[in-house]
Design a protein that fits this description.
By secondary structure, this protein is α+β, with helices and mostly antiparallel strands. The strands form four sheets. Strands 3, 4, 7, 8 and 9 form a five-stranded antiparallel sheet that branches. It has a two-stranded antiparallel ribbon with strand order 1-2. Strands 5-6 form a two-stranded antiparallel sheet.
Amino acid sequence: MGYIPVRDEQGRIVDMVRSGPFQSDDEPTELRRPPAAPDTTAPPSAIPPSRERPRRRSHLGDELSGQNQHAQWGGLAAIAVVAILIYLAWPTVQRQVAAPAAPIAATPAAEQIAGAAVTASSSPTPLILARAVIAYDAPGGAPLGALEPGRPYERAEQIGIWRRLRLAMGDVWVRGWEMDGMPPPSPTPSPFPTAIPAPVVLPPPVPAYVQPTPAPQATCKVVILDGDTIGQACGTSADQLQSTAFALMRTPHGGFPLEIVTPTALNMTPPPAAP
């Protein structure tokens, strides 16, 4: 005994019917009766089977197209990331390849400091001597000979005015001022103070000639009192002459009072000229 499924037009199971020789009459009626014919009239809102299949196909197509779009966008994003990484890495490589080594400039002799040791890096290309110089075995040591111009060298060290050059035959020392074509430096001044020279004493200036003023000449006159000549009075001025005459009148005559001697009583005449 078994059951036979009853399917509709769409292939869906709508009922089960028992089959076989042992089928009894007390079984439920709904299992023995034949399946009812399906209702082919679909409700107005139901979608006809003929339209539902294309709709399912369209949904399936949309899903496939969406997956393809996601795959395309993922591929484009990966390509963009790789391009950005290459762009960021490219300038670094370009700089490392194109950047040349900076040359080392030679220090001028005017900027050298006496007694200071300066170590210079060797340049990538050897330098060429511009003029002949004398080589020494050490700073201030014994001369080894002259180096002809045009010989290649590399500068290794500098101490004061001495430079150590690295040649093919070995290291030698040369004088920096001679290598640069400059005159020898002036000797270092002595640290002891020098004597101060004595100041030069100049004679006093000669004054301009001034015409001397002549001394005033004394004037002499004869003093006569009451008709008697009592002497001669001299003076450089009228006041001095009068005072001398008064003194002369008072002395030899017993000291007459001065008030009785009036100027009108004086008769003063110049002394006679010498023969």
